[in-house]
């Protein structure tokens, strides 16, 4: 049984593939996904997922509660860990161009049981990410609607009963909000879920439009907001530690583990590998290109935000709008940022809800989940049933869970998956050195080791309650695996 748990999936050299050709890794006689995405689509998908929650939501919370102005260092640390993992993802994605992301890569290198753990962690990552970002989307949308009402001379306010989750979470404490559930978050998840249902091409086109809007707004924020920066707000750069992970270097590291949430976009790019026209060339471009662009923007925006107002004022679900509210002359920019945030967060939800069903799709095709999750729509050629399930669960989570809890769980799932991918690249270099690699990680022993260690180190700075929730999630996952996946594994049956 021990050997069965660590059985690995055979990997064959992946030929160059064009739209309509058989996909390496697909099971014979089963429906595949349509190859329609180019390198440009993939870069935009990555930017669509990365730029959003990090700039518009998580930056303020991490700065106000943990790092202060040193949130810029937190982004650097998280970006370095992501760069290591991104290089490893690029090698895998160019070599094994199938849906499933880190799950598929782990199955080929570390065995089925570890692959299940990674796949279950990815469920935690994508599903909870879509929910967490929709909570931030809700806050900016409500702010935008109230701004429009104010411009029209009305004092209308969004009904409190439907504005947020029943409780808020900060610094380990839950407080009631007076709300029943988060209605805007439920509505956006439902709308985006439908878009993902009808097709990848439509989703990618919508994402490209949204990316153009939000990048324009972010560049305007940098260019105009920097003129109002007060350098005194950066002093002290690293506030004195107040105990635990409240500021000081422990706070900087804790903030890095939080803002890591903002980097999961390049991981989402790899889930679309089975729909890329030329994955050997395009996947590394999509992953690394989007990561470089977004890391630079993150650091600059973090500097502008903490320079506009004292970092203690940024602990809201809409920190960019909060910072601009302090400057009446920038009222029009606040309105534009709210539009950009709504658009930007929509694209993040879009990419997350595209990614998760494709993880289920890959696991179902391996027999580890029921065939229901591997069903492909005869017309739209999307994993439509899995998309429906993911959208329903994400909407429920968004309705009742606060942002802080959802964001931390996403970061933990992401970091564990990234660390496993870094280890897997080095393992496959030894077990299958003959495989052609369109992209190779430079100095693999050093990069892979640093990538795994940096990701695991950031996990270590999570709170005890996050570890408790992760343990419960893992137990539930392995119960499902032993009750269904272990007995129905196609690799073991074959």
Write the layout of secondary structure elements.
Layout: H1 2-5, H2 39-50, H3 53-67, H4 71-95, H5 102-109, H6 112-151, E1 167-170, E2 173-176, H7 183-198, H8 200-225, H9 248-259, H10 265-270, H11 279-308, H12 319-324, H13 331-365, H14 384-400, H15 403-431, H16 444-459, H17 464-488, H18 490-493
Antiparallel strand pairs: 1-2
Helix pairs in contact: 2-8, 2-11, 2-13, 3-9, 3-11, 4-9, 4-11, 4-15, 4-16, 5-6, 5-15, 6-7, 6-13, 6-14, 6-15, 6-17, 7-13, 7-14, 8-11, 8-13, 13-14, 15-16
Descriptive account of the structure:
A two-stranded antiparallel sheet has the order 1-2. α4 packs antiparallel against α11, α4 crosses α16 and α13 crosses α14. The protein is mainly alpha-helical. It is built from 18 helices and two strands.
């Amino acid at each position: 049984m021990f050997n069965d748990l660590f059985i690995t999936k055979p990997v064959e050299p992946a030929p160059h593939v064009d739209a309509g050709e058989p996909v390496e890794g697909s099971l014979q006689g089963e429906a595949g996904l349509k190859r329609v995405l180019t390198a440009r689509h993939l870069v935009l998908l990555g930017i669509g997922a990365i730029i959003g929650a990090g700039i518009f939501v998580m930056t303020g919370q991490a700065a106000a509660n943990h790092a202060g102005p040193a949130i810029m260092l937190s982004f650097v640390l998280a970006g370095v860990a992501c760069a290591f993992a991104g290089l490893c993802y690029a090698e895998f994605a160019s070599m094994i161009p199938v849906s499933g992301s880190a799950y598929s890569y782990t199955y080929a290198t570390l065995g089925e049981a570890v692959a299940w753990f990674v796949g279950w962690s990815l469920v935690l990552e994508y599903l909870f990410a879509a929910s967490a970002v929709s909570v931030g989307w809700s806050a900016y949308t409500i702010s935008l609607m109230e701004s429009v009402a104010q411009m029209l001379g009305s004092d209308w306010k969004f009904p409190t009963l439907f504005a947020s989750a029943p409780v808020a979470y900060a610094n380990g404490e839950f407080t009631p909000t007076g709300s029943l559930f988060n209605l805007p978050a439920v509505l956006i998840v439902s709308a985006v879920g439908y878009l993902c249902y009808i097709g990848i091409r439509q989703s990618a086109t919508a994402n490209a439009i949204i990316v153009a809007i939000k990048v324009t707004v972010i560049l305007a924020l940098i260019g105009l907001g920097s003129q109002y920066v007060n350098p005194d707000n950066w002093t002290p750069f690293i506030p004195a530690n107040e105990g635990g992970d409240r500021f000081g270097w422990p706070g900087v590291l804790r903030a890095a583990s939080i803002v890591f949430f903002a980097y999961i976009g390049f991981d989402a790019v790899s889930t679309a590998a089975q729909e890329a026209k030329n994955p050997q060339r395009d996947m590394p471009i999509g992953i690394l290109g989007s990561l470089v662009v977004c890391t630079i923007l993150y650091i600059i925006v973090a500097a502008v935000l903490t320079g506009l107002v004292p970092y203690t004022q940024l602990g809201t679900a809409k920190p960019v709008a909060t910072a601009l509210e302090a400057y009446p002359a920038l009222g029009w920019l606040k309105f534009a940022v709210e539009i950009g945030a709504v658009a930007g967060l929509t694209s993040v939800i879009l990419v997350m809800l595209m990614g998760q069903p494709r993880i289920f799709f890959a696991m179902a095709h391996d027999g580890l989940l029921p065939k229901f999750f591997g069903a492909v729509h005869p017309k739209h050629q999307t994993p439509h049933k899995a998309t429906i399930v993911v959208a329903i669960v994400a909407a429920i989570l968004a309705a009742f869970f606060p942002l802080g809890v959802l964001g931390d769980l996403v970061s933990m799932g992401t970091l564990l998956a990234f660390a496993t991918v870094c280890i897997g690249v080095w393992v496959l270099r030894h077990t299958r050195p003959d495989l052609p690699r369109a992209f190779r990680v430079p100095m693999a022993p050093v990069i892979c080791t640093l990538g795994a260690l940096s990701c695991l180190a950031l996990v270590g700075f999570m709170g005890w309650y996050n570890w408790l929730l992760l343990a419960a999630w893992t137990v539930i996952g392995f119960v499902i695996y032993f009750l269904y996946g272990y007995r129905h594994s196609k690799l073991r049956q074959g």
